[in-house]
Amino acid sequence: MVAAEPLPPPVRTFGSAHPLAFYILRRIAVALAVLGLVSVLVFAATQVLPGDAADTILGRSGTAAQKAELRRELGLDRPLLEQYSSWIRGVLHGDLGRSQSSQQPVTTFISGRLSNSMTLALVAMIVLFVISVVLGVIAGIRRGHALDHAISGTSLALIALPEFVTGAILAVVFGVYLAWLPPTSIVLSGSSPLYHPSILFLPVLTLCFAGSAYIIRMLRAGVAKEMTSDYVQALRLNGIPEHRVIVRHALRNSLAPTVQVFALTVQWLIGGIVVVETVFSYPGLGQGFVQAVEARDIAVVQSMTLLIAAIYILINLVADVVVILLVPKLRTSL
Amino acid sequence: MTTAQAATSTAAARRVRRLPRFLRYRSAQIALAILAFVLLVAILGRFAAPHDPEQQIGVPFATPSGSSLLGKDYLGEDVLSRVLAGGTTVILYGTLATLLAYLIGGAIGLVAGYRGGFTDPTLMRLMDVLLAFPPVILLLLIATGFGSSPAALIAGVVLVQIPSVARILRTATLEVSVCGFVEAAVARGDALWVILRREILPNISGTIVADAGPRLTVSILLVAAVNFLGLGLDPPAPDWSLMISENRAGITVNPWAVIAPAIMIGLLTVSINVIADAVARDRGTSVGVETMRR
């Protein structure tokens, strides 16, 4: 009998030894690839219309010679591939180009408005998350009761309302009829909206109305399911106080699967803020973006779209990784 | 009870039974009535308008009076007439965009799910690129690139909707394509499009029905948002969302110029969503508008 050949040692690749790290690295690689394609798409989309920055700046009065001169200055006479690569190289070095309508660098354009938008976004996010968790839990533990019907019904209606409709109605009710709050949110330059909380109130309320429904509905379903489970029954039979059963056990177990819903809500907030800032004339990035689109200020639109897409992809990535870390069950499919 | 009465009552019962099942929910009945009202206003309203909706007839932001019940807008046009005439575009474009999204996104999802292999990941990664933008930002990018026109508006909404349609129908196709009757069709030597149309499509129609209501709501929301931002229709065209944005300046003088169109859009989207929710509950599926509103 021939002795069996010794088996070769099992190949231990990085991927099989550290599935979680491998998963995260692979997700980062995919995200970077998508971002590269996004940049091509953004660049291509803004090249379609006839007429370029030279036409925008000089308007109809410019002669052909002046326009050709300006094109040379702006580098618009170069081949598209070269324009694209110089744009990307600039973005990677923190140079986002120059606004065609105001001649300011795009970074200046952004930094002036960024803090206003961040203030609105953060305040809205905190208020929205607190309100929707509280209402979601209440609806979940009172499932089938009048309070649940009121919360679920209202959220079903609110989710389908456009942000600008909610905003307009709130502005009329609180700003005109009751006259409690300013119907528009004008921030004087050099001032911060935090010094005038009254102008933040309506935009935040509008964002909460439209954004909380998804979390409420998901959390309600989660909490209601947990409340009928065996372990909750066991906890109750052991004499654990009801509020502790809800907060420490049922809520905790239904929060982890909701992480992605929270992430989706943050992503929604980016688009929602664009509309809400316009409704209330709030001087943030979103309003500036809409104005840039109206003026066909291609440099601003290009760079801001790329930045927003990058943030959007990042939120997605973080949410997926956090969910994998929080819910070990999902790791089996890695 | 006479036989005649019994006959009519069973006929009535049969008629009731023939009503769509989702209508047993009270909320769906009310929503359907509201939707019918909004559609009636949108389609026939312009013929009932007391004034020309694009004609200046008074002072800007004049308050309601006997001749114009909702007052005047920022150009001195009659608000009521513009509300009656302003619903067509958002409903028409929203519906059209939804249909086109199913046509293109559905084709992508069917082919990706059925062919698998190399086609599937290629198509789905392309969809991921489109999903990397917030919808409003993608629409604004398209408005910058293609200008503000109805065609660009519809194309933009279609582009936003294609990836999620493709994803949902791909998953449904994957499940169906391993069934025996599909293998039988392959063995018969049927062409690809015959298999897709005759074997797969009928079997994933349930998914499409459950998905259609929320998707229509989202399409209408997107069309309305672009119009509100002033990047869809051009003034002086009467349009509910455009009216909200152009009359914001006079909100303290004549709030009706903002409130009336806002109520009409709200009734439209909320009623569609409540009906879609009732259909979903009735079928035991749970596709909600919230999952599509990124």
What do these coordinates show?
- The complex is a heterodimer of chains A (334) and B (294).
- In chain A, 72% of the residues lie in helices and 0% in strands.
- Chain A has 334 residues and is mainly α.
- Chain A folds into two domains: 20-101 and 317-334, no CATH class; 109-294, MetI-like fold (Orthogonal Bundle).
- In chain A, helix 6 (106-141) packs antiparallel against helix 7 (146-159) and helix 12 packs antiparallel against helix 14 (298-326).
- The two termini of chain A are 42 Å apart.
- Chain B is elongated, with a radius of gyration of 23 Å.
- Chain B has 294 residues and is mainly α.
- Chain B has a domain at 88-235: MetI-like fold (Orthogonal Bundle), CATH 1.10.3720.
- In chain B, 71% of the residues lie in helices and 0% in strands.
- Chain B is built from 13 helices and no strands.
- The chains are: A mainly alpha (334), B mainly alpha (294).
The CATH first-level class of the largest domain in chain A comes to Mainly Alpha
The outline of chain A comes out as flat
Share of helical residues of chain A: over 70%
CATH superfamily of the largest domain in chain A: MetI-like
H and E string of chain A: HHHHHHHHHHHHHH
Q: How far apart, in Å, are the first and last alpha carbons of chain A?
A: 42 Å
Shape of chain B: elongated
H and E order of chain B: HHHHHHHHHHHHH
